[in-house]
Amino acid sequence: MSTAIRRKYIVKRDFQMRIFFETAIFMFFVAALVGWTVYLGVFKTIIFELSGEKITLVNKLISYRMLVWFLPTAFAIVVISVFLTHQIAGPIFVFQRTIKNLTEGKPVRKIYLRKNDKLKDLADDLNSFIDFINKERSHEPAD
Question: How far is CA 59 from the centre of its chain?
Answer without folding.
Answer: 35
